[in-house]
Structure to design on (264 residues):
């Protein structure tokens, strides 16, 4: 052997290698534990958010926390952010529920000379609107980035970014039923309402097609009288009278939004 190992025995070299390996494994283990702690704190924070725990949620913020939102602007200070949360998102009539998209969640540790002093947690999530007397509905989608800092041995969020807000995608869970062509044919005709001056319904194969202002929209049977859109939470219920269609009740997110009468 030459150089640094000139007078070193093989056993000493092996001990040195295993020592270095053990040091690396120890660092990786510590990093993994810190990441686990950050994710646990994040989980507890969103639990407080979803349950409108306005007392507990402030414990996760630093006093000088800053919240950057691409729709509502910049908010500064723990007290201001908690007060806004309580006033706008946790009322008797309106609340939000957040749901993480697990596959997008990532944690990046911040270090100074090998010592962890903070972490960046980022990802994407959905928001559901909960209004009094109404069915919960999926409303929005956004990206987020949170900076966690270790302050006096306690992890605190210091900077929050919420951005790239978009309407949430609709996930259709309804199943298409088999309905006879005779029933489908009985729904063909022209309809109107106070919102839509003219809608034509025609059968194409085993589905119905709505024609509004020259644009076609396919609706699918869930039952013999209830049809739905696969793109939005819209349903169309055909109301019968003496075996003839009288009108269509249109619902969005379970709420009646229109009634369309069949033109004679």
């Amino acid at each position: 052997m030459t150089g640094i190992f000139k007078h070193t025995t093989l056993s000493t070299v092996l001990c040195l290698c295993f020592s270095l390996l053990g040091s690396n494994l120890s660092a990786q283990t510590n990093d993994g534990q810190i990441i686990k702690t950050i994710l646990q704190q994040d989980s507890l924070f969103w639990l407080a958010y979803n349950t409108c725990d306005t007392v507990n949620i402030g414990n996760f913020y630093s006093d000088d926390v800053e919240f950057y939102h691409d729709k509502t602007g910049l908010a500064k200070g723990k007290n201001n952010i908690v007060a806004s949360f309580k006033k706008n998102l946790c009322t008797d009539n309106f609340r939000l529920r957040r749901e993480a998209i697990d596959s997008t969640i990532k944690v990046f540790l911040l270090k100074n000379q090998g010592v962890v002093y903070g972490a960046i947690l980022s990802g994407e999530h959905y928001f559901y609107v909960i209004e009094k007397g109404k069915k919960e509905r999926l409303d929005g989608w956004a990206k987020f980035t949170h900076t966690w800092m270790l302050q006096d041995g306690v992890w605190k969020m210091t900077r929050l970014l919420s951005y790239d807000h978009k309407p949430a995608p609709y996930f259709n869970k309804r199943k298409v039923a088999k309905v006879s062509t005779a029933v489908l044919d009985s729904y063909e005709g022209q309809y109107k309402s106070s919102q839509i001056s003219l809608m034509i319904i025609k059968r194409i194969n085993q589905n119905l097609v709505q024609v509004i202002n020259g644009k076609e929209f396919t609706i699918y049977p869930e039952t013999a009288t209830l049809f739905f859109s696969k793109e939005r939470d819209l349903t169309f219920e055909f109301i019968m009278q003496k075996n003839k269609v009288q009108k269509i009740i249109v619902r969005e997110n379970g709420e009646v939004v229109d009634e369309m009468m069949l033109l004679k």
